[in-house]
Amino acid sequence: MIDLKLLQKDFETLSKKLMRKGVDAELIVQLKEKFEELKAAKTNFETLQAAQNAMSKEFGIYKREGKDISELKAKVDANKVKITEALEVQRIKQEELEQIAMAVPNMPDDDVPDGADEDDNIEIKKVLTPPTFPFTPKEHWELAEHNGWIDFERGVKLATSRFSVSFGMGARLERALVNFMLDFNRERGFEEVSVPALVNRRALEGTGQLPKFEDDLYKIDSQEMFLIPTAEVPVTNLYQDEILTEDALPKKMTAYTSCFRKEAGAAGRDTRGMIRQHQFHKVELVSISKPDESDTIFDEMVQCASDLLKALELPHRLVTLCTGDLGFSAAKTVDLEVWLPGQNTYREISSVSNTRDFQARRAKIRFKDGKKNTLVHTLNGSSLAVGRTMVAIMENFQNEDGSIDIPKVLHPYLGLH
RNA sequence: GGAGAGGUGGCUGAGUGGUUGAAAGCGGCGGUCUUGAAAACCGUUUUCCGGGCAACCGGAACGGGGGUUCGAAUCCCUCCCUCUCCGCCA
Predict the structure, then answer these.
(1) A192 with A323, same domain?
(2) Are residues A140 and A249 in the same domain?
(3) Which of residues 89-148 of A touch strand B (CB under 7 A)?
(4) Does one domain contain both A91 and A14?
């Protein structure tokens, strides 16, 4: 959630920043008004309540001393009617404010480029040169089926479209990748954690998926539980409602989970192959830091994901997302796009975001900053999406006969020499 | 799934419907003492919101929500969670 106090302190700056992210100017004004209405309602209620508390204390004294209480009781009763009304007004204002505030996205950092969509993203740099082939490189689904690594039809049989099954070397490579990535991240100082794949509503509100994006999530109706769309949700929320000590920061964690997405708005896009699946595996990085450290840690996380791709010998590029492509919770995002020879293009394989205190405010994650409590900064990034890494390996390491070489760093994980 | 017990501050653990935001102990922090440390002693130690430059003032919070009452940690309802026993089970 954005800092509502900024509405009063510096409305101009705040609204300018939010409008860069496409938030309606009118909505921001409305938010400010609601916030002020709530404060007024609160003051009103608290004044009445203070009077009530004072009178109640008197009441106790009267009773002890055996005085006549009928007059006092009449006063107190009258005040109580007002309190009930004031409380109701406050409750409604609170609800209205929350409804708006929880649906307002984070403010982009000042250095995030303006833009409408992914076409306006700005390339930072390319890493490794895309390979050239003396033949026309195939797309991954063809290679996957040719080698018997992935079975798309049987995935559909078991579940529905956009589910797949890995067999043999395909399945083994997947597992090898997960292990390799976790080991790699651990060596970079990220502690491995293993977390639930189902979370409650509160957790998803904390990281920003709810209330706005419920349609994108798989929900277990009987229990009000949701399948996680990314490990970012359970890992970031590990410290929900906590006040961490300063020396416990930064927390740098890595987790492997399955991720589940309805891909509600993606009909017709990437329908073939395993670029866009309802269930996919991902190794995630999550950091919780003091505000002044988050930029450094952000760079570390981007570097970690890029180095991982480099170790896998996968050509890629780093891209700064423009305001229009930035996610709901992110103040800044760098995407890593891997080269896919079959598609002759770069495709997203990792996304690293700094949400600053946006998620921390929602999830109430703070640290003891000397005497006072300060919101932490939270960051997350994929490192990497396993399915898309498989795709990249298949397409970049393919031979003319359709066979696929295995990146050297994975050999130990597969018992190859 | 069945039966029972219970949820109070960083932890352990008291709590009679009325100055109880909450005894006591532990821990933490500050101090006295000490060459230093320990021990002992003294003091201090929850969080959120609103107002104020500040000292401070007001409100809220004893698992969540609701109710009874002038007044609820304390009584009632409901939901959630934890523990013990039984059953089932990777």
Answers:
(1) yes
(2) yes
(3) none
(4) yes
Strand B near-CB residues (< 7 Å), A 340-359: none
Residues A19 and A150 reside in one and the same domain: no
Number of domains forming the structure of chain A: 2
Closest nucleotide to A368's CA, by C1' atom? B47
Above 90 in pLDDT, residue A66? no
- Are A328 and A379 in the same domain? yes
- Asked if the peptide bond before residue A211 counts as cis, ω within 30 degrees of 0, the response is yes
Amino acid at A317: R
Q: Stated in angstroms, how far is A154 CA from B12 C1'?
A: 57
Q: What are A164-219's pLDDT values in tens digits?
A: 999 999 999 999 999 999 999 999 999 999 999 999 888 999 999 998 999 999 99
A152 backbone φψ class: left, alpha, beta (φ>0; ψ -120 to 50): alpha
Q: Is the CB of A6 within 7 Å of strand B?
A: no
Q: The domain containing residue A127 runs over which residues?
A: 118-414
Whether A183 is in a domain gets the answer yes
* Residue A43's CATH number: 1.10.287.40
Q: Report yes or no: A417 and A157 within 8 Å, Cβ to Cβ.
A: no
Do A2 and A14 touch, CB atoms closer than 8 A? yes
Q: Which of A162, A261, A362, A366 is flagged as catalytic?
A: A261
Residue A356 a catalytic site member: no
* Nucleic acid strand B within 7 Å of A55 CB: yes
Location of structure tokens 């390799």: A180
